[in-house]
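Exercise (ungraded).
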Amino acid sequence: MNTKDAVVILFSLAQGARLEIFRLLVQAGPAGLAAGDIATRLDMPASTLSFHLKELAHAGLVKPLQSGRFIYYSAAFDVMNGLLAFLTENCCEGAQDCCVSAVCQAESA
Amino acid sequence: MNTKDAVVILFSLAQGARLEIFRLLVQAGPAGLAAGDIATRLDMPASTLSFHLKELAHAGLVKPLQSGRFIYYSAAFDVMNGLLAFLTENCCEGAQDCCVSAVCQAESA
DNA sequence: ACAACATTTCTATATTAGTGGAAATATAGA
DNA sequence: TCTATATTTCCACTAATATAGAAATGTTGT
């Protein structure tokens, strides 16, 4: 991951509608949700949703899977993990205690 | 942390210049760097840097500390950790294995 | 082929963001 | 107070983004 990739990913999340879409998909898990289902749950016009899904897919944060007439979108956890690692890379010149430890402790506690 | 806070933080990072500033400060550690130092290292006009620092500070991602004529900016690791936690909240309906574990394993390995 | 449905692309509009020079503000030291 | 330095604010310009209706595309079952 380089700076340009990270900017694209962050940009795709830095918008109210898109962040809600992504969080919905994170909570939905690997199976994902159909586009129409997302539109209904978030009360969003189809064209607006499509615009945002395209942005998220372009960043690699969501992956589309066609199944019949439906297209299921799911969150790409590996891409998100890569982003998190990038954001805390070379943290504090090697003193990693001050950086992401809080998250890891919260997870393992 | 709510969606609006997260969008503000993500937005502050979703820009090439700002992401570079933040990463520089992450690597610099808690002591931070003076604004002029950042400008020199990133070869950026002072007014442009100031614009971006303001955005990062507004999001709470960097903290300014005045010391004489200099203003030292440092990364707010607690805010970043809060963001990471928010992004993976309620992940996969409880099956956390699929989410942030990769980051934590990489850190502890 | 046709009808029904799911999703995307096209189009126009309104709003917002990024840039950097010049001027203003703040601090320190003599 | 005067000067040098550090940083921010002001300003104008250029460009990009979010939105949603309407039309187009693709898919399924009959």
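Further reading is listed at the end of the chapter. For now, observe: Residues 15, 17, 45-48, 51-52, 66, 68-70 of chain A lie near DNA strand D (CB under 10 Å from a C1'). Confidence is low (pLDDT under 50) at residues 101-109 of chain A.
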